[in-house]
Amino acid sequence: MAARAFIISVAFLLFTAPLMPLQALFVNTSVRLARWLPRRYHRAVCRILGLRITVHGTPLVTEPHLIAANHISWLDIPVFSAVLPVSFIAKREVSGWPFFGTLARLQRCLFVDRDRRAATGQFRAAMQQRLAEHDILVLFPEGTSGDGNRVLPFRSALMGAASMDISPAPGAAPRPVAVQPVSIAYTHLNGLPMGRRNRPLFAWYGDMEILPHIWQALKAGPVDVTVEFHPPVSIEQLGDRKALTRHCEEVIRNGLIAANSGRRADVPVRPGGTG
Fold this sequence. Notes:
Layout: H1 2-29, H2 31-49, E1 51-57, E2 65-69, H3 76-83, E3 86-91, H4 100-106, E4 110-112, H5 120-132, E5 136-139, E6 165-166, E7 175-176, E8 178-189, E9 192-193, H6 195-198, H7 210-220, E10 223-229, H8 235-238, H9 241-261
Parallel strand pairs: 1-10, 2-5, 2-8, 3-4, 3-5
Antiparallel strand pairs: 6-7, 8-9, 8-10
Helix pairs in contact: 1-2, 1-7, 2-3
């Protein structure tokens, strides 16, 4: 209903606008507060948007790490941010988007320019610094968003950060950074199984324009979202970056299928191979 979309839009803007200068202050003065506010903010935003989140599995919170996740919608951002204090690795173009680019910068996103090889070293150094500060970074290895029914092939090049050596705790010997596969699925609309027909109301992909899509999603009704944290892995366990990428893709694909079909099944890690 258009009235529902209008009320949610107004509530979102009235809630967000006063917090943007406060978060800008935190970003410049306190890393701890700059992590704290977005999680509280996104929890409230998910309630405003009518997102009901169910979490399965155990998030890794004891050490800095990467989250590798499938990407379905702009809604993924508030969902993941409501569950954990995270920042995202996003393409450079996002930083220039009106309003949404500002929100991304306020959440301390790392922006990568995939077309400039010269920028790779600088980006890698920035990522290393953020992990050293015990940040949790979310990476979408598909490189784009999908339709919510399937997981697109993961790009091993985007998993290059997994080869970084990071000290998991102060004074500990450096080791390859941990990667936690996480699957996200939009499963129910108005309490009923969503199915392929309704999933494009929330899955933002292809050449869909973002503002009409947001309006369409807000009109549709409350949505149930399933987020599953699968066991963390590392290059050290699986042998190399390509094996790690294959494992994460398989685990996340199975997690998406299980959530969409109403069942869940963890994929075990077999060191030296994929799960």
